[in-house]
Amino acid sequence: MTRRFDTHFNLVGILHLILGMLSLLGGLGGLAVLGVFGALITGAAAADPTASGLAAGGVFGTVALIFSGVIAAISLPQIAAGFGLLKRRPWAPAVALFVSLFHLFTPPFGTALAVYTGWSLLSEQGQRDYKLISG
């Protein structure tokens, strides 16, 4: 028996999976790029006896770790929420809504996904249908 919002739940889950995986790839790419820049700066500074180049290389490495850590901290729960929505897990709507709060400020796709997630999971009919489907 297919409910009215079943298609919306599937689409929200798939979109969260896609955006989460793209974000994770972007974070890993940023880590690689900033890591390479940090290594180049540190390598160039090794020939120069001044410590300013070594400090700059360390700053790039630290920024790369923080950047990828923040991206992973947001994208991994988003991927989990996408899988959870597709499997109709009872915890998935809460995780998807929480992650969507962060995406409100990433227009246009993140904002659109956040609004669509909120509409499909917070509407009265959506909540009823999700409870019926997830058991």
Q: For the CA atoms, what is the radius of gyration? A: 20 Å
* Low-confidence runs: none
Number of strands: 0
Number of domains: 1
Mean pLDDT: 84
End-to-end separation? 13 Å
Beta fraction of the residues?
under 5%
- Compute the number of helices: 5
Tell me the major beta sheet.
Answer: none
Structural class: mainly alpha
Order of helices and strands: HHHHH
- The rough form would be described as rod-shaped
Helix content: over 70%
Describe the structure.
It is built from five helices and no strands. It has 135 residues and is mostly helical. It has one domain. The model has no long low-confidence stretch (mean pLDDT 84).
Short account of what is shown:
The chain has one domain (6-134). Helix content is 84%, strand content 0%. The chain has helices at residues 6-47, 52-86, 92-103, 109-122, 124-134.
